[in-house]
Design goal:
This protein has helices at about 10-20, 30-60, 70-75, 80-110, 120-140, 145-160, 165-175, 180-210. It is mostly helical. About 75% of the residues lie in helices and about 0% in strands.
Length: about 220
């Protein structure tokens, strides 16, 4: 028999800690709790939605200049719930860009970048750049006329960078012209490199928020 007054089962306690780390506020009982739940988790929820919807899209998308555009059209008009999945990914991406911009503006106007939070401000600035790069690289993947001209203009701008500009453009395109090399590079950036960098930076960012504390309140 277990002695009276003994603590809960270690597995139950561990599961409770995991649950509490994911759903930190419980069920919203008041308007204030509901607002706090939405405001403190919205950015992370968008990232998770983008990850899940992006995984589904990867089952149908082939990063080939000959097939990419037709894959997107098949998703829209042939695959069951393909249009819903693509639009979830697309609008969540727009929402994440807007949310990060608004968050950065709030941090700036409230002076939350001041000591001791200057390191976290730098991490947040890098996360903003990563978010914009994720949006730009995803914009290119349908490989339609908009995508081709966007990558042409973007890499031509990089060519005029003061140090190593032409070499930067060559690395981005995987050659001297816009083609298969460019598409596969931006595809890998979009589905592997940038999400991994963003995830690591978000872990650091949230950890520093917990260490440095919040400024102001609702």
């Amino acid at each position: 028999m277990r002695a009276s007054g003994a603590g809960p089962n270690p597995l139950v306690r561990f599961a409770s800690q995991i649950w509490g780390s994911i759903f930190r506020h419980g069920l919203p009982s008041t308007d204030k709790v509901a607002a706090r739940t939405a405001l403190t988790n919205f950015f992370l929820h968008l990232f998770i939605l983008l990850t899940i919807s992006g995984l589904f899209l990867m089952f149908y998308y082939i990063p080939s200049v000959d097939q990419a555009y037709q894959n997107i059209k098949d998703l829209q008009f042939v695959e069951t719930f393909g249009l819903v999945t693509r639009n979830l990914h697309r609008w969540a991406a727009h929402g994440m860009v807007i949310t990060v911009w608004l968050h950065m503006a709030r941090v700036f106007y409230q002076g939350s970048y001041k000591p001791p939070r200057e390191f976290n401000w730098a991490i947040g600035s890098i996360l903003l750049v990563v978010t914009l790069l994720l949006s730009f690289s995803g914009y290119l993947l349908p490989w339609d006329q908009l995508a081709v001209w966007a990558i042409t203009v973007g890499t031509n701008m990089a060519k005029y960078a003061p140090i190593g500009g032409p070499y930067t453009r060559y690395v981005m395109l995987g050659g001297r012209t816009v083609g298969q090399g460019a598409l596969i590079r931006f595809y890998v950036l979009h589905v592997v490199a940038l999400p991994l960098i963003g995830f690591i930076l978000m872990v650091i960012h949230f950890w520093r928020v917990r260490k440095d504390g919040f400024t102001g309140g609702l």
